[in-house]
Amino acid sequence: MKRIAVLILILLSFENAFSLFATVNNWNTRVFKDEKSFDVIDVLPPCTVVSTLRKVEGERIEIFYDGKKGWVERKNLTIYYNIFSNFEPKPKFITNAGYDYFFYYFEESINKFNLYDKKIEKKYKVGKIQQILPSPIEGVFLFEGVVTNNGEEIYNLSIYDINTGKNVYIGSFERKTITIENTTFLNNPQFVAVHFKVNGKKLLCVYNAKDGRIIAHTTDALGVFYLENTLFFYNLKNIWTNGINRENINADFSQERHFISLQKKFFINNSLNYLIKEHFLYIETIEGVFAINLKNKSVSKTPYKSLITDENFRLCYYKVANRQFIKDIENNIIYSLPDDTKFFGFSGTNVIISRKYGKVETFFLISLAGSEIYRYRSIDRIDFINRNQVVVECNFEKNLCNIIIEDPGKTNFHPFFIKVL
To answer: Among 199, 79, 72, which Cα is nearest to 150's?
Structure first.
């Protein structure tokens, strides 16, 4: 009986202990030694996640982070309440997961739909999500929810793996203080970059997707990418390198960390359009595509005209004035597309385009030489193209999800109309 009583006390103590998360919402938040002391033992950047007590009273709150503890002013924290939205979520086609299936969000579930069996393979109940960002890893998503606390809207970010059911908390952010401008998974999906504006000042944070911790933050970079255990931060003039560090670090832009200077022509409207492939940074410019070797820092111009390529990096689509072209890099051949068509994407070595007849838009599968292979009969919009020229359109109604699949490979060329309750 005594053991049971002790166990209950332990459980009650745990319930009142580290059962809440909080996010730092202000610049240079001071961590004090104790509740009354003015001794500052640490300074935390905004968007840092800490643990705190369930029962919060007084002007200061005890926090626990990185094996440390201290006290911060309550006004500098946003308390985590609920990862899911209390606003009405919108159905959404999320991503292709592979070539045989794709994911879509409908009625508070992420659904995995099999293209060839024409049925839902599995449902994952996730609740009300306002925004969903797919990662390059199959079944891993960044969730954005919105809750209201004391009349204030709060964003909650988390990374959810439907394969394991694991949820990694990224942070909670009050809209009046912090806005989220952009969120992207890096070319290594273990890391996610979030562009914030904190009290009007820009902040870029890189989080570890496995534990939600900030591994680097800076106010001096436009963006970041990853290669071989190194973060590459860039602005309009330079690229700097920073090693991956478990500690919450301020990205180092000292001369020792300088990697390479960037030419002005690499930026279009102050934006860097790039692709990481193997150990090369490919940058699209108005003059074509340049490649920076991230191992020896050499810069060269490539035969590519744009970064709109097929999956094998052999074909690229580009425009000159109002004319459209496809370049076969391997054979150094340029093909022109008809002027009255719109390019939609590559499917193998073929191309999917559309042409309008009056107000009706019709989609075609054509060869590089321009000959028509197949005319799609049932698709008004394309949400997904797979390598077998199969196209998918998802339409969401009040309580129905209409999925239209059209496969040129079928001998009867009939699409599948699917209604999912």
So the answer is: 79
